[in-house]
UniProtKB/TrEMBL annotation, chain A:
The gene is UTP7. The keyword Nucleus applies. Residues 346-425 form the BING4 C-terminal domain. Signal peptide: none annotated. Involved in nucleolar processing of pre-18S ribosomal RNA. GO terms for biological process: maturation of SSU-rRNA from tricistronic rRNA transcript (SSU-rRNA, 5.8S rRNA, LSU-rRNA). Residues 492-525 are annotated as: Disordered. SMART domains: BING4CT, WD40. It comes from Podila minutissima. It is found in: Nucleus, Nucleolus. This is U three protein 7.
UniProtKB/TrEMBL annotation, chain B:
Transmembrane segments: none annotated. Its main location: nucleus. This is U3 small nucleolar RNA-associated protein 14. GO terms for biological process: rRNA processing. Residues 1-18 have a biased composition (Gly residues). Residues 19-33, 40-61, 840-853 have a biased composition (Low complexity). The keyword Nucleus applies. It comes from the Eukaryota. Residues 82-115, 146-170, 200-241, 570-590, 867-877 have a biased composition (Acidic residues).
Length: 525, 1039
C-alpha cells in the first residue's frame, strides 16, 4: 500500500485515474476461485483493459489545454458587487462583445442555444422569432408569426427549430420556412429536445406530455399527466428523463416507456415555477411560488439545500461547470457551488431594470449567460460558467458546414431508441431482476401477441350458388374462352331466365295490384 | 485352430481322446504358448495335402495337450513328431494302461538295447542335464552320453553352439530346403535329425522360459524325457534302416497288439500300419540321398513340421572344407547369427485377428500422432490466448525507413528542394563533406586519444547494454517465489510506522489514514454481495428455481439499496460541509482551525435546528415526539447544547476580535471614503437585519466603527454560524450597545430569549410553524421596535395560541394573511428590493407604519433611493439565503398569497398511501358468494375457500418500496416492460455469475468515453486478415 502511495505521488496521472474508472469491479475479488480457465483469463484481461483505458483517459487530460477560472476577489472585494459594466472594462474586446442587450418590443422572450452554444434562438411572446449565430452576429432568419409564441427550441442542430405557437407546434428551417406543423401538440407551453433520441418533447395546457421523433415523424409516446396545465419542463441531460413541475408543487419524472411517472416528488408547497438539472444529472434545482429554491440530489431524492428567492424564480439554469443561474423579477443571480455547500452570498448579480426575466440559459462552452426578458434579450458574462474544453466530436462550437452535415448523419445512425430511457442509465444489458414467473408470463404474452390465433372466417354458402356447372366455370382459367365454356355460360343464363320465369309467372301479363302479396319478386318496369 | 476342429471329430470315440480334448480346452493358454510349433505344423500340413485331415487334426490336438497325466499321449505325440510315422498311436482309443504299456522305457527292453547298440540318442548331447541321464536307463545312459559326445565331435564341432540358437531358422529352412537345388542337399541325415531334435528341445525350453510359470517346468522335463525316448525309437528306425526295420516293426506290432487286445476297433491302426510300411523305406544315410530324406521330411512336414530338423547349416556344413563357398558361408552365418533370431521366428507367426491387429495399429498410430500433435500445443495455445491475431501471422513489420536511408535516397526533385540543395552545396554542407570533415577531425587527434575515447564509448555502450539486458531478464522472471522474496525484501527495507512517524509525522499520519480508508472501503464493498456460500451455490445451481432466484434478487436489491443509502449519506455529509473541505488546509493554520471550529459549531446548530424541524413535523402528525414532555425535554437538551456552542464561540470571537481590531483601522479608513455602513455590511446583509440594525440605530461614527469591527469578526465566520447569531432575538436587541459588551452579553441575551429563539431556528419553512414560530416572530418584531404593529401581532398571536395544536400550518397562514399583508408590504419596502412596485407605493403606505419604522428602516430607504440613482453601481445583492429575520415575514406573505386553500402535503401523503396500498401483493378470494353454500340460519361457513395467492412479482410490500423512507417521494414500482427487452434473463456464456457479467459491462467501450487508441484496441476484432495476402498454414517453431 505504501508503495502504491509512493507511486501515486510519482505519477500525477494516477491521481486523476479514479475520475475515469467506472467503479472497481468485484469480479477480480474472486477471480482466482474460478475454475474455468478461459473465463478467468478473460476476466483478468478485461479488468486490465479497463484499468488501462482509465489510465489512458486520465493521461489524455493533458490535451485539455484550457482551464476554467472564476472571479477571484481580493481583500474585501465581493464578486457579487462586480457589475457587468465594470467587468466589461477588464475583459478583452472579443469577450466584451458577448455582453449585450437587445431591446425588443415583442415581449417576454424565451430563448434557446444550440448544443455547441453557437446559435441562439429567441421567441417573443408576441410572435417575434429570430435565429442567429450570436457570436458572429449573423442573422439566420427573423419571423413575425403574428400569433402567440410560447416557447422555442432548436432541434438536433441549427438548421431546424420548433416554435410552440398559439395552437400548434411548428417546425421551421434556418431560413424561416415552415416545414412542419405538428397538430398533435396542442397549446404547448414548453418544449425540449432530446438530442440522442431525436425526440421533441412538449407539454402544454392540456397536461399531455408528448414525445415526437423528429427523425421519423412518429409520435412515440403520449402521457396524460393528470395534473392539469403545466409549463415547467426540463430534461435530465444524463438520462433523458423528463422532469415536469406541476401546480401542486410536485415534480414528476417521465420516460416514454411508462404511462405513469417514474418518480413523483413533493418539492414545493406551491406551484413549481422553474426547474433545472445539472449536467451530470445528479442535482436538480426547483423553484416554487412559495418562494423557495430547493436543490435536490436526484440519486437519493432528498433535498440538499434550501434557499429562497425574494420573488418566485421564473427561470433556472445550471451551467456546465455547476453554476446556478436564477432569474427572478428583474434580477439574475448566479450562485457558485450551491449544491454541496450552503452559500451565503451569490457569485454574481445582474439587474435588468424594469423588465422581468423570463428565461435564463447558460451558453455551453462560453462564460456567458443569456436571458430573455420582458423587453428583449440580454447576455452577460459569467466567468467560469462554461466548460473550457470542448469535445469536437460531441459539440463543436467551431464546426464547419461539412462537419455539421457529417455529425448529423452520425447522430442519426447512432440514434438511441426511446425504450432505453430509464432511470437506471446502465440498464441495457444488465440482469432483469424481476421474478422468473413474471418474465415467463411476459414471454408467453409476447408470443401470443406475435402469433394471434386467427378466427376462422365463417363461410356463407348461399344455396344454389354452387352447382356443378358453376364450379366448373370457376375452375376454368378466367381469361381463356373455349366453346365449352361459352356453352356453359349460355346454358346457365338460359336456366336462370327460365327459373325467373317460372317464379314470376308470365312476364307478358300485366302486373296487378295483388302481385305484391304473392311473395315473388317481380321486376316492375 | 486345430484343437477346435479336432474336437468334434473324435468326440464319439470317447475315452482318452475326450479327456485330452477337455484338457486341451482347459489349457488353452498353454496351447497358445506352443502355438509356434503348432502353427508351424499347421503350415506344413496345409502345404502337403496328401495327408488325411483327420491325422493332422489329431496330431495338432495331441501336440497341444500338456497335462501331467498325459505323459503317454504326449509320448504318442512325440512319436508322430519324430517322424516315426506310426500313426496308429495317435488313435485316441488307447487306454491309459495301454499307454503305459508302451512306455518307451518298457518297450525298449534289453533286446532292443542289443539291437540298437549303435543308436545315437538325440537330446542326450546335453551332458549337463542330469535328469535326462537319470531317467534313461543306467547302462544306456552312458552309451548315449558317449554317443552324444561323439556326435558333438562330429557335427557340432563346426556348428559350435549354433544348434541351440538357430531355432528360428529351422522352419524356414524346411520349406526352403524343399525347394533347394540338388547340390545343397548334402546334409547328413543324422545331423539333420540331431539338429532337429535339439531344436525342438531348445524350443521347448524357450517357450517355457518365456511364458510359463515354474510349475510348468515339471511338464517340460517330462516332455523332454519323453521326447528323448521317442527320439530313440525314431532314430532307431532311421539309423538301422531296412536292417533293423523288421525287428522294430515287430516290437511296435507287439505294442499295437497289446493295444488291440483292449481296443475293439482296429481299422485305423491297420491303416496306420500300412503307412508305416510305406514310410519305413530305408535310404542310405548320406549327403547324397537327401532326396529320399526330403520326401520323408516333406511327408513328416505334413504331420509335424517342427520336428523337421533340417537346417541350412546342416546343409552348408558339408561344404565347410571346400573352397569356393566362403561367400555362401558368410551369407549363411549372417543369416543365422544376429540379434533378431527370435524375431525371425515371429515373422512366421500367424497374423493376429484383423480387429486386434487394427486396434494395435490404431494405438500405435495414435501414440505417434499424439507425439506429433503435442509439439503444436504451445503455439496453438499461444494463439488461442492471444487477444488479437493478424494474418498472415509473423509477417515482418514494415521497416520504417531510417534517416540515413532516406537521406541517401533523397533526390531533390521539386524546385524548392533543388534550391535548398544548391544552397547547401554552396555552403559546403553536403553530407559527404561533413563526413570527411569528421574523419579529418578524428585524424587530428592522437591515436591514443582516439583509442581512449573509443574505449570509453565502448565501455559505456557495454554497460548500458548489460544493464538493459539485466533489466529485461529480471522483468521477465515469472517466478512467484522470486517476486515474493523481492517483495519481502522491499518491505524489510521499507520504513516501519514508528520510524516513519519519527522522520515525518505528517506523512505517517497520511499513510495511516490512507490505510484505514482503504480498509474501510474494503469492508464496505465486501458486504451484501453474492459472495456468500449459499448465494454462490444458488447461483451455480438454483437459477431456475424461482424461490432462490427471488431470494438472490432480493439480496442484490438489498445491496443496491444499501449502496444507494451510502450514496445518500455521502451527499448528506457533503451538504453539511464535511471535513473534506478543509483537508487541504494546514494543521498549523490557526485561521483554518478556527474556521473549522466555527463550522463545526454551525453544523451542530444546524443539526439542532433540523431536529427541531423534524420535531415540528412530528408535531403536526402524531407520535411520541409530538407529546409535550418529549418536546420539552428535547428543547432542554438543545438549549444546553446551544449554550455550550455559544460559549465556545464567544471564546473564539474574543480571541479573534483582538486580532481583528488591529487590521480594522486601515480597513475602516478605506471604507470611510465610501458613503456609509451600507457598504460595510456586505455579508451583513446576509447575516440578517440584526447586523444592519446596529448601524441603523447607532449612526455615530465611533460606534459604527466598533460595530463594523464586530461585523467583520462575524463576517469571517461561515454562513451557518452567522445565521445563528442573527437569529437570536436577544442578540439584535443587544446590538445597540457597544460591541464588546454585546459580544459578552450575547450569551445572556440568548439564554434569556432562548425559547423564542429556538423556534426561530427551525423557521426554514415558516408556514409549517405553529404558535411557537409566531412567538419567535413577535419577539423579533418587538426588537425592531414596531410598536403599533407589534401590538396587532400580539393579539393575533394570542388568537392563534388559542387554537389547538391540531390547527395546521395552512390554517395559520390563512389567518395571518390578512393581518400581515400590510406588514409584508412594509417589509418589502424596507428591503428595497422591488423598487418598481414599492417606490410608487412607498408614499401611500400607512403613515403610522412609516413612523413606526426605526432609524434602520429609514436608512434602508436611503439605500434603495441610492440604488435607484445608480443601478450600475453598488446595489445590495438580492439575498436568497434563509436569513430568518427579514425573510421570514416576506415568506409568510408569499405563502399566504400562494396557497390560500392548498393542502398539497396531505394530499400527496394520501396519494402515496393509496399507491402503496394498490401496489402491494394481494391474495384474491375467488369464491363466488352464494355459490355452493347455504344461506339462512345456522348455515355454516364455507370451508373450501379458493384464494389465489399473490405470486412473486405481483406487487411490492409497503415496507420494501424504494420510497419507504422518503415521505415526499413516490417511486414507481411498476415494471418497465419496454426497457426489459434490453435486459438479460440468463447469464451469458461463459460467465458464471451476474456480478461477473455486469462487471464486464461497467466500462464503456465507445470512443466517446475512451481515447482513440483504447477504443481501437477494445474494438479490434480478434482476427484480422490482410486483403489479398496469402495465409500460409501455421508453421511451428520447432521445425
Amino acid at each position: 500500500m505504501a508503495n502504491d502511495k509512493k507511486k501515486e505521488k510519482k505519477d500525477p496521472v494516477l491521481a486523476i485515474v479514479p475520475k475515469y474508472t467506472r467503479g472497481d469491479g468485484t469480479a477480480l475479488d474472486n477471480v482466482n476461485k474460478i475454475q474455468n480457465k478461459k473465463l478467468k483469463g478473460g476476466i483478468k484481461r478485461r479488468e486490465k483493459q479497463f484499468q488501462e483505458a482509465a489510465y489512458k483517459a486520465a493521461n489524455s487530460e493533458l490535451l485539455l489545454t484550457e482551464q476554467g477560472g472564476f472571479l477571484e476577489p481580493e481583500g474585501i472585494e465581493k464578486t457579487y458587487q462586480l457589475t457587468q459594466r465594470a467587468l466589461g472594462k477588464e475583459v478583452d474586446v472579443a469577450t466584451s462583445h458577448k455582453m449585450f442587450n437587445l431591446d425588443l418590443k415583442f415581449g417576454p422572450y424565451s430563448i434557446d442555444y444550440t448544443r455547441n452554444g453557437r446559435h441562439l434562438l429567441i421567441g417573443g411572446k408576441k410572435g417575434h422569432v429570430a435565429a442567429f449565430d450570436w457570436q458572429a452576429g449573423n442573422l439566420a432568419c427573423e419571423l413575425q408569426l403574428r400569433e402567440t409564441v410560447r416557447d422555442v427550441t432548436w432541434l438536433h442542430n441549427e438548421t431546424m427549430f420548433a416554435v410552440a405557437q398559439k395552437k400548434y407546434v411548428y417546425i421551421y428551417d434556418k431560413t424561416g420556412t415552415e416545414i412542419h406543423c405538428l397538430r398533435n401538440h396542442i397549446e404547448v407551453t414548453k418544449m425540449d429536445f432530446l438530442p440522442y433520441h431525436f425526440l421533441l418533447t412538449t407539454i402544454g395546457n392540456t397536461g399531455y406530455l408528448k414525445y415526437q421523433d423528429t427523425s421519423t415523424g412518429q409520435l412515440v409516446a403520449e402521457h396524460r399527466t393528470k395534473q392539469g396545465k403545466c409549463d415547467v419542463m426540463s430534461q435530465n441531460p444524463a438520462t433523458a428523463i423528463m422532469h415536469l413541475g406541476h401546480g401542486n408543487g410536485t415534480v414528476t419524472l417521465w420516460s416514454p416507456n411508462m404511462t405513469t411517472p417514474l418518480v413523483k416528488m413533493q418539492c414545493h408547497r406551491g406551484p413549481v415555477t422553474a426547474l433545472a438539472i445539472d449536467h451530470a444529472g445528479t442535482y436538480m434545482a426547483t423553484a416554487g411560488l412559495d418562494g423557495q429554491l430547493k436543490l435536490w440530489d436526484l440519486r437519493s431524492y432528498k433535498p440538499v439545500q434550501e434557499y429562497y428567492t425574494p420573488t418566485p424564480a421564473a427561470s433556472l439554469s445550471i451551467s456546465q461547470r455547476g453554476l446556478l443561474g436564477v432569474g427572478f423579477g428583474p434580477h439574475v443571480s448566479i450562485w457558485k457551488d450551491p449544491f454541496r455547500t450552503k452559500q451565503t452570498s451569490p457569485y454574481m448579480n445582474h439587474l435588468q431594470p424594469g423588465s422581468a426575466v423570463q428565461d435564463v440559459r447558460f451558453v455551453p462552452f462560453e462564460d456567458v449567460l443569456g436571458f430573455g426578458h420582458r423587453n428583449g434579450f440580454g447576455s452577460i458574462i459569467v466567468p467560469g460558467a462554461g466548460e473550457p474544453n470542448f469535445d469536437a466530436l460531441e459539440a463543436n462550437p467551431f464546426q464547419t458546414k461539412k462537419q455539421r452535415q457529417e455529425m448529423e448523419v452520425h447522430s442519426l445512425l447512432e440514434k438511441i431508441q426511446p425504450e432505453m430511457i430509464t432511470l437506471d442509465v446502465g440498464m441495457v444489458g444488465k440482469m432483469d431482476k424481476a421474478p422468473i414467473q413474471l418474465i415467463n408470463k411476459e414471454k408467453k404474452e409476447a408470443w401470443a401477441a406475435a402469433n394471434p390465433v386467427e378466427a376462422k372466417e365463417l363461410k356463407f354458402r348461399a344455396r344454389g350458388k354452387n352447382s356443378s356447372s358453376r364450379r366448373h366455370l370457376r375452375k376454368q382459367a378466367k381469361n381463356v374462352i373455349d366453346q365449352k365454356k361459352v356453352d356453359l355460360i349460355e346454358r346457365i343464363e338460359k336456366d336462370k331466365k327460365e327459373r325467373a320465369k317460372r317464379r314470376m309467372g308470365n312476364e307478358d301479363e300485366p302486373a296487378t295490384a295483388l302481385d305484391r302479396f304473392s311473395g315473388k319478386k317481380r321486376k316492375m318496369e | 485352430m486345430a484343437p477346435g476342429r479336432a474336437g468334434p471329430g473324435k468326440g464319439g470315440r470317447g475315452g482318452a481322446g475326450g479327456s485330452n480334448n477337455n484338457n486341451n480346452n482347459n489349457r488353452k493358454p498353454q496351447a497358445n504358448n506352443h502355438s509356434r510349433k503348432a502353427r508351424g505344423a499347421a503350415a506344413a500340413a496345409s502345404a502337403s495335402a496328401n495327408k488325411s485331415n483327420k491325422s493332422v487334426k489329431s496330431l495338432a490336438n495331441v501336440y497341444s495337450v500338456e497335462d501331467e497325466d498325459e505323459s503317454k499321449s504326449s509320448r504318442r505325440r512325440k512319436q508322430y513328431l519324430d517322424e516315426v510315422d506310426n500313426y496308429e498311436y495317435n488313435v485316441d482309443e488307447i487306454e491309459d494302461e495301454d499307454d503305459e504299456e508302451i512306455d518307451s522305457d518298457e518297450a525298449f527292453d534289453e533286446e532292443d538295447e542289443e539291437k540298437y547298440e549303435n543308436f545315437q540318442f538325440y537330446g542326450s548331447k546335453d551332458a549337463g542335464k542330469p535328469k535326462k541321464s537319470k531317467k534313461t536307463d543306467k547302462g544306456k545312459g552312458k552309451k548315449v552320453d558317449s554317443e552324444d559326445e561323439d556326435m558333438m565331435d562330429q557335427s557340432e564341432s563346426e556348428e559350435e553352439e549354433e544348434s541351440e540358437e538357430e531355432e528360428g531358422a529351422e522352419y524356414m529352412d524346411i520349406s526352403e530346403m524343399l525347394d533347394q537345388p540338388e547340390e545343397e542337399e548334402v546334409a547328413l541325415p543324422k545331423k539333420v535329425k540331431l539338429a532337429g531334435f535339439n531344436d525342438s528341445e531348445s524350443e521347448d525350453d524357450f517357450k517355457f522360459g518365456d511364458d510359463d510359470d515354474e510349475e510348468e517346468e515339471d511338464d517340460e522335463e517330462d516332455e523332454d524325457d519323453e521326447e528323448e525316448d521317442e527320439a530313440e525309437d525314431m532314430d532307431e528306425d532311421e539309423e538301422e534302416g531296412g536292417k533293423d526295420l523288421t525287428s522294430f516293426i515287430d516290437s511296435l506290432e507287439t505294442s499295437t497288439k497289446k493295444r488291440k487286445q483292449d481296443d475293439g476297433s482296429a481299422s485305423t491302426t491297420k491303416k496306420a500300419r500300412k503307412n508305416l510300411r510305406e514310410r519305413t523305406e530305408a535310404y542310405d544315410e548320406s549327403e547324397y540321398n537327401l532326396q529320399a530324406h526330403r520326401s520323408s521330411a516333406a511327408h513328416s512336414a505334413t504331420g509335424v513340421s517342427n520336428k523337421k530338423k533340417l537346417d541350412i547349416l546342416d546343409l552348408v556344413s558339408t561344404i565347410q572344407n571346400e573352397a569356393g563357398f566362403s561367400s555362401l558361408k558368410k551369407g549363411v552365418q549372417a543369416l543365422e547369427s544376429g540379434p533378431n533370431k527370435g524375431k525371425s521366428v515371429e515373422t512366421l507367426a500367424a497374423p493376429l485377428p484383423k480387429i486386434v491387429q487394427d486396434r494395435l495399429n490404431r494405438q500405435a498410430a495414435y501414440d505417434e500422432s499424439k507425439k506429433e500433435v503435442s509439439k503444436w500445443l504451445p503455439i496453438v495455445q499461444k494463439n488461442r490466448q492471444a487477444d488479437h491475431l493478424a494474418f498472415p501471422l509473423n509477417a515482418p513489420a514494415p521497416v520504417a525507413p531510417s534517416n540515413a536511408a532516406l537521406a541517401s535516397k533523397f533526390d531533390a526533385s521539386t524546385e524548392m528542394e533543388k534550391e535548398v540543395e544548391k544552397v547547401l552545396i554552396e555552403g559546403g554542407m553536403q553530407e559527404k563533406k561533413l563526413m570527411e570533415f569528421e574523419e579529418l577531425a578524428l585524424n587530428k587527434m592522437s591515436t591514443e586519444e582516439v583509442e581512449k575515447r573509443r574505449a570509453e564509448l565502448r565501455q559505456m555502450r557495454d554497460l548500458m547494454f548489460r544493464d538493459e539486458l539485466r533489466a529485461k531478464r529480471v522483468s521477465k522472471i515469472k517466478s512467484k517465489l522470486y517476486r515474493k522474496i523481492k517483495k519481502k525484501e522491499r518491505e524489510r527495507n521499507a520504513l516501519t510506522e514508528e520510524e516513519m512517524r519519527e522522520l515525518d509525522p505528517e506523512q505517517a499520519h497520511e499513510e495511516r489514514l490512507f490505510a484505514e480508508q482503504q480498509r474501510a472501503q474494503e469492508r464496505m464493498t465486501l458486504k451484501h454481495k453474492n459472495t456468500g456460500k449459499w448465494a454462490k451455490d444458488q447461483l451455480k445451481h438454483g437459477n431456475f428455481d424461482p424461490e432462490s432466484r427471488q431470494a438472490i434478487t432480493e439480496q442484490i436489491e438489498r445491496g443496491d439499496r444499501l449502496r444507494r443509502k451510502i450514496q445518500g449519506v455521502d451527499s448528506d455529509e457533503e451538504q453539511s460541509g464535511g471535513e473534506s473541505e478543509y483537508s487541504d488546509l494546514d494543521d498549523d493554520d490557526v485561521e483554518g482551525i478556527k474556521n473549522r471550529a466555527f463550522d463545526e459549531l454551525a453544523a451542530v446548530e444546524d443539526q439542532l435546528s433540523k431536529a427541531e424541524d423534524a420535531a415540528k413535523e412530528a408535531k403536526v402528525g402524531k407520535g411520541v415526539f409530538a407529546m409535550k414532555f418529549m418536546q420539552d425535554a428535547a428543547k432542554r437538551n438543545k438549549l444546553q447544547a446551544q449554550a455550550q456552542a455559544e460559549e465556545f464561540r464567544k471564546e473564539m470571537m474574543d480571541e479573534e476580535e483582538e486580532a481583528a481590531k488591529s487590521s480594522e483601522d486601515e480597513w475602516q479608513s478605506s471604507k470611510k471614503g465610501k458613503k456609509n455602513k451600507k457598504n460595510v455590511a456586505e455579508p451583513g446583509t446576509v447575516i440578517g437585519a440584526g447586523g444592519r440594525m446596529v448601524f441603523g440605530s447607532g449612526v455615530e461614527v465611533p460606534e459604527s466603527k466598533d460595530a463594523s469591527g464586530k461585523a467583520k469578526a462575524v463576517k469571517m465566520n461561515s454562513g451557518g454560524q452567522i445565521q445563528k447569531v442573527a437569529l437570536s432575538g436577544g442578540h439584535s436587541t443587544k446590538v445597540e450597545g457597544p460591541v464588546n459588551v454585546k459580544v459578552a452579553g450575547m450569551k445572556s441575551g440568548l439564554s434569556a430569549t432562548a425559547p423564542e429563539g429556538d423556534s426561530d431556528d427551525g423557521s426554514a419553512n415558516p408556514w409549517l410553524k405553529t404558535e411557537k414560530h409566531g412567538q419567535g416572530k413577535i419577539a423579533r418584531k418587538n426588537d425592531k421596535g414596531m410598536t403599533k404593529d407589534s401590538s396587532k401581532v400580539d393579539k393575533l398571536q394570542a388568537k392563534i395560541k388559542k387554537q389547538k395544536a391540531e390547527a395546521e400550518s395552512d390554517d395559520e397562514v390563512q389567518i395571518d394573511t390578512s393581518s400581515f399583508l400590510t406588514l409584508s408590504k412594509d417589509n418589502q419596502k424596507e428591503r428595497g428590493l422591488h423598487k418598481d412596485e414599492s417606490a410608487s407605493k412607498a408614499p401611500s403606505t400607512k403613515a403610522s407604519s412609516q413612523q413606526a419604522k426605526n432609524v434602520k428602516g429609514g436608512a434602508k430607504e436611503e439605500v434603495s433611493v441610492a440604488n435607484d440613482d445608480d443601478d450600475s453601481g453598488d446595489e445590495a445583492e438580492p439575498v436568497m439565503v434563509h436569513a430568518k429575520t427579514t425573510a421570514a415575514l416576506s415568506q409568510r406573505d408569499l405563502v399566504a398569497r400562494a396557497f390560500a386553500n392548498d393542502n398539497v402535503v396531505s394530499e400527496f401523503e394520501r396519494e402515496k398511501m393509496e399507491t402503496a396500498e394498490a401496489e402491494k401483493p394481494k391474495d384474491i378470494d375467488m369464491t363466488l358468494p352464494g355459490w355452493g353454500s347455504w344461506g339462512g340460519k345456522g348455515a355454516k361457513k364455507k370451508k373450501n375457500v379458493v384464494v389465489k395467492k399473490a405470486q412473486p412479482g405481483d406487487g411490492v410490500e409497503i415496507s420494501k418500496r424504494k420510497d419507504a423512507k422518503l415521505a415526499h417521494v413516490i417511486i414507481n414500482e411498476k415494471r418497465d416492460k419496454k426497457a426489459a427487452a434490453y435486459a438479460v434473463n440468463k447469464i451469458p456464456h461463459p460467465f458464471t455469475s451476474w456480478a461477473q457479467y455486469e462487471d464486464s459491462l461497467r466500462a464503456p467501450v465507445g470512443k466517446e468515453w475512451n481515447t482513440n487508441a483504447t477504443f481501437q484496441q477494445m474494438t479490434l476484432p480478434r482476427i484480422t486478415t490482410k486483403l489479398g495476402k496469402i495465409i500460409d498454414p501455421l508453421t511451428a517453431p520447432f521445425k
